[in-house]
Structures are given as structure tokens and as C-alpha cells.
Design a protein that fits this description.
The structure holds 2 protein chains of 2 kinds. By secondary structure, chain A is α/β, with parallel strands linked by helices. Helices cover about 35% and strands about 25% of the residues of chain A. Chain A contains 21 helices and 23 strands. The longest helix of chain A is centred in the middle third of the chain and has 18 residues, at about 190-205. The N and C termini of chain A lie far apart (about 60 Å). Chain B has helices at about 20-35, 35-55, 90-125, 125-140, 145-155, 160-185, 190-195, 200-240, 250-255, 265-295. Residues about 1-20 of chain B have low confidence and may be disordered. Chain B is elongated. Chain B has one domain (about 35-60, about 90-295): Orthogonal Bundle (MetI-like fold), CATH 1.10.3720.10. Chain B contains 10 helices and no strands. Classes of the chains: A alpha/beta, B mainly alpha.
Chain lengths: ~575, ~300
């Protein structure tokens, strides 16, 4: 076969906003051969998703595709097809996998029906035939107990299982091309590894081509033969995966690759000294958490034990990383620590007394010393306040200025401290990018000159290259202001860079706690091992271990009746 | 949300423009494009101007009687004709305009203030406070609006001020419900939690962070409610419970013309049309405003 399965030439897409046209994709060309996988990598706003959607003709109404653009699929010109003709291609010849498995399924429809529906539409199969086919596909995507689960509703499935169902729907009519738009971004890292492996396996069995869109170089490394790197609507670099990883030509690609945290990097001398201080007992204990628990009542007598019996210490000047997957209770721990939730039991000793017993006035005093940086830089800033009022708010609350001039000066100082311009103070949050907003959030937390900051996934909403700059900023601020951090994250790689010690949380408990180097070198708890081996490694030669691929149900590690013990010096494990 | 797409991620030197201007411009642009809002807005503006300066320009006094010219049909001398006392209906309509608008605006303002206060408290504090307040609102809502207003006026006695009070009371639950719902939503947002973690008091959070962010739906509801209030107030006056004769209140004028419907239909028709015009103007404006303020329909 000489012709490629998909050939995109000079794709140019603009969005009309009001009276003007904004070009979001310019001169993008790429191709995918039969049975091949192409990865499109780019940060948010790079135009990667828009390009993919144009192949399906699923663009929004205000999108305009340039006349000279060509998309040839299977020997036919896609852009010349009518809506009716496109409908026959969508789902049949091209399947699409969406990002969010939680919102991509119809919650009121049995999953078996959702899968067989596609088969019925495109292949004029009878209900029975379609059901038989659907069950086959469910087996293919690794859903256990197909007969029973065929008649279940989406809410009865976990996130990973739902993504498998979505893949099953996309595969229902054995498409020639599968478009996967950030298929694993919303999933935990252990499940991500499984889904990626599943896609590979399916490709082997069915020979379908895959267009994989992602922001994560780790994901494409061992998935794709070729990679297209996009930035600001343009193709920056194209090549085989090996070429891109071993000898990237463009600066932008180099920057993106450099932004990937290195799991094997040695800790700095400074961090080692800190650890030595902590272990020898010479460093001051800032916070002592004793058997902290937070249970949420779910009604009818059942409770959700979000945090159960968690104990740890935080020393002045250190960064303690708190890692866990969604639902592990890491955010709840951070919030309960600062009494954004009231603890069910246990104590948080700060400056010699338990925070949970503080009265209103003491609480306000404490809020001056302990601060919080939130995950989502979009929702954590009041959209109707100017930056100067957002950052100035803590100053107002605690009356930390004598006059207006002083307040203004302080706000500008804070902006400069986090690497923003003082003139930004007159603007509203929506005028800033995610990274800039997160800087504003950090400036707000710094306004009261706190000693301790809880960073609740401050990086997870940001692009990789921006993440790196924020990590640098946090490190710099820690050095300058002698701050103590509790750094909450789901991503082990970023935790490694920033943290001196790391605690791994699983199902409401800390299962392992030690310094970050030791944890990566010598993980002891089986859950930590799984978590570590599931990290997508940005190395084309890397092979995923068998352990990661065990079915989701087997992942469950029982921690019932175990206790936290010091297995090696300063290395605590639940066993 | 469209506005969150930003191409130069991470670059600290962002775009240079004044946001105040942009926000207002964005709103005005949508407003202009939305024909119904524009027409409604212009109509309301015209009505307000008439209410303010109209009374100084009318050819006759609102209560000047002329028994030589009873029940006259519309003519060049009397644009809208005269009523059973020979009063010029045109002049009475113009004078009645300010009464109608006053009733509409003040009753809604009172109802909104009370309703929003209760709703925000209810939504913010939740638990038993919420239960008590919202059950009371349910009781109020259980009565048909006009019936409730009628009952209140019957107790307080028939006068224009009592009409305002009764209409205000019956619009309280609507505002309470809307603001409670929005508060529940805003309360859970991270920026509220962020301010709480800074040590802000509940009062500060409510005034500075919750209220400004729930205002859009409330303003829309207020506009739509003015229409309802005008209608209810005229209804009460029509029943003789509101403005007392000879006040040129439109509802009362409708009532005046009731007995002459066959031989002088203009006496009822014209105040009726005036009420329809005002109600329509506010409804159209409110609908348009809702579209213009809705962040989902932006761009």
C-alpha cells in the first residue's frame, strides 16, 4: 500500500470571535501509516486537540478551515464530505477516545447498550448480533465478568474501567483509525499505565492506527513510532520517537524534554544537610500531627474514612511531600491540618498547642502563620477582584499596613517576589495564564509572611514547562524566606524534585515515609512499588513491568490491621 | 469556558490592556447584539424619562374635571379621550407612570434586599438556619402571589404604600431561593475557601466574595420581578385595595372604566395597554439581560 491511512496537509483552522478571525492551527501537516501510532505532543493552546477534531469534522461552529487544507483519509478527502457522509465515517472508520471517562458516558444507559448501539447504527446488525459483538469487545479491552457487567450502569465502574468502556465503544466497529485525545490525563498513574498498555495490545490484535494526543512526553515515549511536537498552532518538530528523544533539533522540544523531572537526579547538598539535621534531632519541629482522622458521614450510618489515623512531623525549613492517587485522602489531610475541615479526632500540634482546640481569635492568629496554595489557579481566585485586592486581602484581614500607600507597596513587592510585574496589580485574574495565576495564588499566601505553607497540588493544572518554573519559584522562596512546605501531589516525579522527605498515602493512611531518595531507590511497601513502576518514563526503550499491568482489582493492597513501623533507619512502612 | 484559553502560558509578560474597559465592552457588545435587551432597555429609559418630566408637560392636570366633556373618544384635543369625570386620560396616564414605576422599583428593592439577605444566610450557614428560613419561604410560596398580596393589604388596609409592602413580601421567597442556590454554588468554590484560609470572617466572605459573584441572576430576576410587581400592584388597585381615587393609578383607572366598557372602551383599554407596555418592556429587558450576563453564552 503506497498511500498512508491519514494524510493531513497544510491544515489551517481559525476561530471567528465576533468580527475577527484568530488562527489557531497554521500549516500543520502529518501522516499516519496503516497500523502505526503517531503522537501529537503539545502544551495547552498548542492546537493539538483542534487538529484532531478537524479529522472527525467535530469542530465547533465558529471554526473555519482554510480552503487549501487537505485531510485525506483512506484515499478520500474528508473536508469535502457532507455531514451525512461524515456520520458514516465517525465511529465506523474513525473512533475517538475522549479525555474524561466520567462525563463521556451516558449515565442513564447500560454500558452494554452503549457499546452495541454503535454497532447497530453502523453495521445494521440485529440487537442480538450487536450484543454478541459488544461482549467480545468488552473482553478485548479487559473488562472482567462480561456477562454480568454488560447490564450495569456507568456509575458502577471505576474511572479506569470507564475509560476501557469508552475504548470499547470507539473500537466497536473496528475502526481503521483511533483518535485518543489525552486518554489518560484524568486517570491515576497506575491506571494510566494499564490503559496505555491496553491500547498497544489492541493495536497488535486489530491492526488499527492510533493518533495519540497528549501533553506528556512520558506517555508517547513507548507508545508511538513517530511524534509531532506542536506549539502555538504550528508544528515545531516532526520525527521518529527515537530521533526526538535522542537528538531533538528545535529549542522548544529541548525545553519540553528538559522540563520532565528526572527521577534519578541526586538531591542537593542543601537537602542532604536538612535531612541530617532532621534525623539527628537538631532541627526544630514545626508541626506534629498525631493520629489525625477525618471521617465524612455518608448517611444511613456509613462513613467515609477519608483520613484515618495519620501521624507525621514536619520540621522547620523542610518540604514534606505527600503523595497518593485520587481518593487517597491527601488533600483532606492538608485541609484538616489547617482546619479548613474540622478533624474527627487526633491533634495537630503547632507551637506547642493543638490547633483543633483553638478559639476564634487564636485561629485568626494561626492563619497568619500557616497558609494554603490551591490546586486550581482558575477557581481559587475571585474573578471579580483585581489582583491588588486578591493579594491585598490578607493584608486587610490582619491589618498589616498603616496606610494605602504602604498596602500598594507591599502588593507590588509581593508580585515581584513571585516573578510578576508590579503593574499587574490593576488587572483581573482572567487576563492571566494558568502559571501566572498560580503565582498570584502564591503571592497571596506569602502576604502574611507565613512560616508554613500547604501546597495542594499546585502544579497539576499547569503545563510541564510551566510546572518547572513554579517548582523553581517555590524552591527559591523557601530558601529566601525559610519556609516550610507540605507539598501534596499525585505525581511522584515532581514530588521527588521538591521534597526532602516523602510520605505515600493510600486509602486514608500513610503507608510509607522516608527521605525522597531512599523512597525512589528502595521502595518497601507494595503500593509504593506499584506507584513507582507505573510512572510513564520518557524513554523509548523503557518496558513496563508486569506488576503494573495486573488487573485493577488486584491492585488493591490490604492495609487492614497493619501498623506503621520503622523498618530501616528513618524509613517507616505500614506492614 | 472560552476565556480561559490563553496561548502564552507561563510567560510573565502578558497582554497589555485595561480589563475594566474590556469587561464592560464585552458586556455592552453582547448587549447591543441582543436586540430584545436593547429594545427593552430603550423602552425602560423612555418610560423613566416620561415619569420624571412628563407631569410638567401634560396639557391638563390629572384630576382636572370637565363635566362638559364626559367619556369623549380620543381626539387631537384629548389624545386618549376623557373619562366619566371628564378628566384627560393622557394626562392621567403620564402622571400614573411615576406611580407605577415607583411601586415596581421600591417593592422589588425591598423584596430583593430581604430575600437576598435571607437566601445568602441560608445558603452560607446551611444546617438548621437553612431549614428554618427555607421552610418559611416555602410557606410564602405556597400561596398564589396575588392572593397573598391581597391578604396582606386586607390586613394592613388599602393604600399605595401597603401595596408596595405586600408586593415586596410576596417577592421575598423568589429572591431567597435564587440567592440561596447561587450561594451554595459559590460557597464551595476554591476562592472562598482560599479567603477562609486567610482568616477572613464570615461577614467579609459574604459581602466581598459571595455577593458580587451571585449578583447576575439576582439582577435578572429583579428586572423580571418588576414586571410582575407592576401587574400585581395594578391588580390590587383594580380591586380597590391599592391606590384610592382620585389617584391616577393605572389599575384604579381600569376599574373606573369598568362600567363604561361598552360605550367608552378607551377608558379601560388605554390604562390596560400602558400596563402591558411597561410589563413587556421589563420582561424583554430582563430576558435580554439574562443572555448578556450569562457567561456560558459569552462569545
Amino acid at each position: 500500500m503506497t498511500e498512508k491511512l491519514l494524510q493531513v496537509d497544510n491544515l489551517k483552522i481559525s476561530f471567528s470571535t465576533g468580527d475577527s478571525l484568530t488562527e489557531v492551527v497554521s500549516d500543520v501537516s502529518f501522516e499516519i501509516g496503516h497500523g502505526k501510532t503517531l503522537g501529537i505532543v503539545g502544551e495547552s493552546g498548542s492546537g493539538k486537540s483542534v487538529s484532531a477534531r478537524s479529522i472527525m469534522q467535530l469542530l465547533e461552529n465558529n471554526a473555519v478551515v482554510d480552503q487549501n487544507s487537505r485531510i485525506r483519509f483512506n484515499g478520500e478527502e474528508i473536508l469535502e464530505k457532507s455531514d451525512r457522509e461524515m456520520r458514516k465515517i465517525r465511529g465506523k472508520d474513525i473512533g475517538m477516545i475522549f479525555q474524561d471517562p466520567m462525563s463521556s458516558l451516558n449515565p442513564t444507559m447500560k454500558i452494554g447498550k452503549q457499546i452495541s448501539e454503535t454497532i447497530q447504527i453502523h453495521e445494521k446488525a440485529s440487537k442480538k448480533e450487536a450484543a454478541v459483538r459488544a461482549k467480545e469487545i468488552m473482553k478485548l479491552v479487559g473488562i472482567p465478568d462480561v456477562e454480568d457487567r454488560f447490564n450495569q450502569y456507568p456509575f458502577e465502574f471505576s474511572g479506569g474501567m470507564r475509560q476501557r468502556i469508552i475504548i470499547a465503544i470507539a473500537l466497536a466497529c473496528s475502526p481503521k483509525l483511533l483518535i485518543a485525545d489525552e486518554p489518560t490525563t484524568a486517570l491515576d498513574v497506575t491506571i494510566q499505565a494499564q490503559i496505555l498498555e491496553l491500547l498497544k495490545d489492541i493495536q497488535k490484535k486489530t491492526g488499527t492506527s492510533i493518533l495519540l494526543i497528549t501533553h506528556d512526553f512520558g506517555v508517547v515515549a513507548n507508545m508511538c513510532e513517530e511524534i509531532v511536537v506542536m506549539n502555538k498552532g504550528r508544528v515545531v518538530e516532526k520525527g521518529t520517537t527515537k530521533e526526538i528523544f535522542s537528538s531533538p533539533k528545535e529549542d522548544y522540544t529541548k525545553r519540553l524534554l528538559a522540563a520532565i523531572p528526572d527521577l534519578h537526579a541526586e538531591k542537593t547538598q542543601e537537602s542532604k544537610e536538612k535531612l541530617a539535621d532532621i534525623y539527628s534531632g537538631t532541627r526544630e519541629k514545626l508541626l506534629e500531627v498525631n493520629q489525625l482522622a477525618k471521617h465524612f458521614p455518608l448517611g444511613r450510618g456509613t462513613t467515609l474514612k477519608a483520613v484515618d489515623d495519620v501521624s507525621f512531623d514536619i520540621y522547620r525549613g523542610e518540604t514534606l511531600g505527600l503523595v497518593g492517587e485520587s481518593g487517597s485522602g491527601k488533600s483532606t489531610t492538608g485541609r484538616t491540618l489547617l482546619r479548613l475541615h474540622d478533624a474527627t479526632s487526633g491533634e495537630t500540634v503547632f507551637e506547642g498547642s493543638d490547633i483543633n482546640t483553638y478559639k476564634k481569635r487564636q485561629m485568626k492568629e494561626m492563619r497568619k502563620k500557616v497558609q494554603f496554595v490551591f490546586q486550581d489557579p482558575y477557581s481559587s481566585l475571585n474573578p471579580r477582584q483585581k489582583v491588588k485586592d486578591i493579594i491585598g486581602e490578607p493584608l486587610d484581614i490582619h491589618k498589616l499596613f498603616a496606610n494605602k500607600k504602604e498596602r500598594k507597596k507591599r502588593v507590588e513587592e509581593l508580585l515581584e517576589l513571585v516573578g510578576l510585574e508590579a503593574s499587574f496589580s490593576e488587572r483581573f485574574p482572567h487576563e492571566f495564564s494558568g502559571g501566572q495565576r498560580q503565582r498570584i495564588g502564591i503571592a497571596r499566601a506569602l502576604a502574611v509572611e507565613p512560616e508554613f505553607i500547604v501546597l495542594d497540588e499546585p502544579l497539576s493544572a499547569l503545563d510541564a514547562s510551566v510546572q518547572a518554573t513554579i517548582v523553581d519559584l517555590l524552591e527559591e522562596l523557601q530558601r529566601k524566606l525559610n519556609l516550610t512546605y507540605l507539598f501534596i501531589a499525585h505525581d511522584l516525579a515532581t514530588v521527588k524534585k521538591l521534597s526532602d522527605r516523602v510520605a505515600v498515602m493510600y486509602k486514608g493512611s500513610i503507608v510509607e515515609l522516608t527521605d525522597s531518595e531512599e523512597l525512589f531507590r528502595n521502595p518497601l511497601h507494595s503500593y509504593t512499588k506499584k506507584l513507582l513502576s507505573a510512572i510513564p518514563v520518557p524513554d523509548p526503550h523503557y518496558e513496563v513491568t508486569e506488576e503494573v499491568l495486573s488487573p485493577e482489582e488486584d491492585l488493591a493492597v490490604s492495609i487492614e490491621g497493619q501498623s506503621f513501623t520503622e523498618v530501616r533507619p528513618n524509613h517507616w512502612v505500614m506492614q | 469556558m472560552q476565556e480561559e484559553v490563553n496561548l502564552n502560558t507561563g510567560d510573565p509578560s502578558g497582554q497589555q490592556f485595561n480589563s475594566n474597559v474590556v469587561r464592560f465592552k464585552d458586556f455592552m457588545k453582547k448587549f447591543y447584539r441582543n436586540k430584545s435587551a436593547l429594545i427593552g432597555g430603550i423602552l425602560i429609559l423612555a418610560l423613566i424619562i416620561i415619569a420624571l418630566i412628563g407631569p410638567y408637560l401634560t396639557p391638563y392636570g390629572p384630576n382636572t374635571q370637565n363635566y362638559g366633556n364626559l367619556l369623549a373618544p380620543p381626539s387631537t384635543e384629548h389624545f386618549f379621550g376623557t373619562d366619566h369625570h371628564g378628566r384627560d386620560i393622557f394626562s392621567r396616564i403620564i402622571h400614573g407612570m411615576s406611580i407605577t414605576l415607583r411601586v415596581g422599583f421600591t417593592s422589588v428593592l425591598i423584596g430583593m434586599t430581604i430575600g437576598v439577605t435571607l437566601g445568602v444566610i441560608s445558603g452560607y450557614y446551611g444546617k438548621w438556619v437553612d431549614t428554618i428560613i427555607m421552610r418559611c419561604m416555602d410557606v410564602l410560596l405556597a400561596f398564589p402571589g396575588i392572593l397573598l398580596a391581597l391578604a396582606i393589604v386586607a390586613v394592613l388596609g388599602g393604600s399605595l404604600n401597603n401595596v408596595i409592602i405586600s408586593v415586596a413580601i410576596f417577592s421575598v421567597p423568589v429572591f431567597a431561593r435564587i440567592s440561596r442556590g447561587s450561594t451554595l454554588e459559590v460557597r464551595e468554590l476554591e476562592y472562598v475557601e482560599a479567603v477562609r484560609s486567610l482568616g477572613a470572617s464570615d461577614f467579609r466572605i459574604i459581602i466581598r466574595h459571595v455577593l458580587p459573584n451571585i449578583m447576575s441572576p439576582i439582577i435578572v430576576q429583579a428586572t423580571l420581578n418588576i414586571a410582575t410587581s407592576v401587574l400585581t400592584a395594578s391588580g390590587l388597585s383594580f380591586l380597590g385595595m391599592g391606590a384610592q381615587p382620585p389617584t391616577p393609578e393605572w389599575g384604579a383607572m381600569l376599574n373606573d372604566g369598568r362600567n363604561y366598557m361598552w360605550n367608552a372602551p378607551h377608558i379601560t383599554m388605554i390604562p390596560g395597554l400602558a400596563i402591558v407596555a411597561v410589563v413587556l418592556a421589563f420582561n424583554v429587558f430582563g430576558d435580554g439581560l439574562r443572555d448578556a450576563l450569562d457567561p456560558k453564552s459569552r462569545n
